[in-house]
Amino acid sequence: MNLSLAAATIKRINYWLSEQKSIVAFQWSPIMWGSTWSFLIISISTYIITSATLHLLLLLIGRRRPIPLGPIPALHSLAMSLISATIFLGILSSAAAEIRDTRWIWQRSKTPFQWLLCFPIGTRPSGRVFFWSYVFYLSRFLHIFRTFLTILRRRTLSFFQLFNHSILICMSFLWLEFSQSFQVIAILLMTLVFTLVYGYRFWTEIGFRRARVPFVMNCHLIFLVCNLACHIGVLLLHFYKGGCNGMGAWFFNSVLNSFVLLIFLRSYVKTYYLIRENYFHVAASSISEVGDFVTSQTSNKSVVSSCGPKI
């Protein structure tokens, strides 16, 4: 009885994640919200201008203490963790369904893992995985609210934080616009990391003990290493397996990811150097602001506990 109930529950969850008519029939088109280049440019510009304006206003009024935000940061972290977990399960279920339904077309030339990395040339942005790619794109606009929370609580604005959040919005738009290969693996990796990172942030923001190691930074390091390995895999498949779809957008994303990786490694090494020198504690630090935070803390040798936004 319990097994039957569990099987029925899993089947129903799978239906809501990958078999609904709206998911199966999804098609990226200019009439959808956020699907135009003008919207992309205006939204990113508005985000940067609003963040900079808020930061300048706080500087002008000379407020030195953080603005109390109550449970808002914890609720934001909880929402991001749950949304990321849902997207992870949704795209995993949808990818399995797409492989099941279309494998007969490409089974002689690709394995399922190769399909996840390298869409066949001519792939259109429609179907299950692109539905969840669109949901991921929309979730980036909720993600950027972390920037405003950071400015209000910490009175700091990181260039890398603005750059990284803007790039994530741009990249997720390009995935849909050009049916870019690699996006399934990228979304799986990112949503898994977001689930863990924001779940950990919620845990600490409601008062539980922080980890003794920089948990958030280590999660990002593992993600970036896996991301780099998958990029190399896409490149090899493109040249040796007949080509991958959306390689122009993939190249642009690769350049941006390389820049992010270099900045992260610089911040990671600097952070561990300062930990060894006992300057401060970064158990809850985040990749997106750790570079600026490290720089600001080297001039004042105090012990600080940091909790900021991610990529």
From TrEMBL:
This is Elongation of fatty acids protein 3-like. InterPro entries: ELO_fam (IPR002076). It is found in: Membrane. The gene is LOC107778850. It is a multi-pass membrane protein. Pfam families: ELO (PF01151). One of its GO terms (biological process) is sphingolipid biosynthetic process. The chain crosses the membrane at residues 37-62, 74-97, 129-149, 156-176, 182-203, 215-237, 249-269. Keywords: Fatty acid biosynthesis, Fatty acid metabolism, Lipid biosynthesis, Lipid metabolism, Membrane, Transferase, Transmembrane, Transmembrane helix. One of its GO terms (cellular component) is endoplasmic reticulum membrane. GO terms for molecular function: fatty acid elongase activity. PANTHER family: ELONGATION OF FATTY ACIDS PROTEIN 3-LIKE, FATTY ACID ACYL TRANSFERASE-RELATED. It comes from the Eukaryota.
